[in-house]
Design brief:
- The protein has 10 helices and 10 strands.
- It is of the alpha/beta class.
- The protein has 2 domains: 107 residues, Leucine Dehydrogenase, chain A, domain 1 (Rossmann fold, 3-Layer(aba) Sandwich), CATH 3.40.50; 128 residues, Rossmann fold (3-Layer(aba) Sandwich), CATH 3.40.50.720.
- It is globular, with a radius of gyration of 20 Å.
Amino acid sequence: MPNAPTHDTDIDGRAVARRLLEEVAAGVAELKRGGWLPRLLSVRVGDSPAVDLYIRNQKRCAEQVGIAFEEKRFDSDISLQVLLAAIQSMNIDPSVTGIILQRPLGGDLSIKALQAAIHPLKDVEGMHPASIGNIVYRELDLGPCTAMAAVELLRSTNVPLQGLEVTVIGHSEIVGKPIAFLLMAEGATVTVCHHMTRHVAVHSRRADAVFVAVGKPGLLQSDMIKPGAVIIDIGINQVIGADGNPAVVGDCDYESCRKIAGWITPVPGGVGPVTVAILMRNTVIAARRQRLQYERQFDGAAVEGGT
């Protein structure tokens, strides 16, 4: 159980991201020595300022660690069938080792159908149904980036995960639910709250760690947590600050919660940088898996051919 804070309560997401990216760069160098060049394709539909920001951050990190990054733009009126065909061509392109779908998608496109169309070996977002299912079987190396980033930040506090009481507020398919499965695989006891949960505070007050990912600023207040708890704030909300200017805030009341919490992630500077670093790590993992698959096929063909 976390103790009352005796240190700076902020978890420095940028520092955690730097450590991860150093490991990724070493992995990229090892792949390149073996003749493999990790190449990440970014698929976007239509125009969105938020997507522009995501892509800039991803491209900058990719260049930093030596991953080739390429953006594929599609018009907002593209049909699902045409986009599915484009993804299939990326799947069979041996030079492409990773594919990421940028959200939000324009039009009436089914994100579920598109995510399922990406080959599991190239699913660097960890959002293919097979990737999600693997978490249940404790295969934890390639999971949804934001969920993996949130758990990595908890791990960075050195709070033991086994037996930890955790409350997850928010049960989305890409964040809340994967976080719960990832933590259960680590031995934590997890409660998941959602819009039909009665008295969320009853659950959050008894938790050693609280993850909040709802998209509602100020949802988590200081009277909803116990002293020393770890707060991982995954929310990203734009509000008008006291000075009348736009500001980005999370889902917790940061100033009041940080006085009670043992550790807390700021917004921005918490989960965001680590999410991009996890995407780069997933890209290396995907490239390694494809290399292994290729080597197995090559060895099998050699045996069959009698060489």
